[in-house]
Amino acid sequence: MVRVFKYAVIRLAVFFVVWGACMLLGLGWIFSTIAAAVIALAAGYLFFNDLRTGAGSDVASAWEGRGKREQFKSEQADADAEDSYTEGRYFEPGSDAGPWEPKGK
């Protein structure tokens, strides 16, 4: 996620430099904002391609859960105990047993 932070900081820096230059030229805040956004987008896309693609892969990894930490042994033991407790106690749609019969009978 460091690449995401670096890419965001660079894009924000480019945005504010361009915005400040446009404001100093007296172009108005609306035009300055639009011009700075377009130029920051283009600069990030053209000049920081490696950082942009790395940040994108970091976000994709975090979104897919590949960046998650592994469960501790106690968490896994708790999950296993809960699963074994509820196994067969509740009706599961698609099973042969009716909702009034335990799964094991």
TrEMBL record:
Residues 66-105 are annotated as: Disordered. Residues 66-76 have a biased composition (Basic and acidic residues). Keywords: Membrane, Transmembrane, Transmembrane helix. It holds the Pfam family DUF4229. The keyword Ribosomal protein does not apply. It comes from Citricoccus zhacaiensis. This is DUF4229 domain-containing protein. The chain crosses the membrane at residues 12-45.
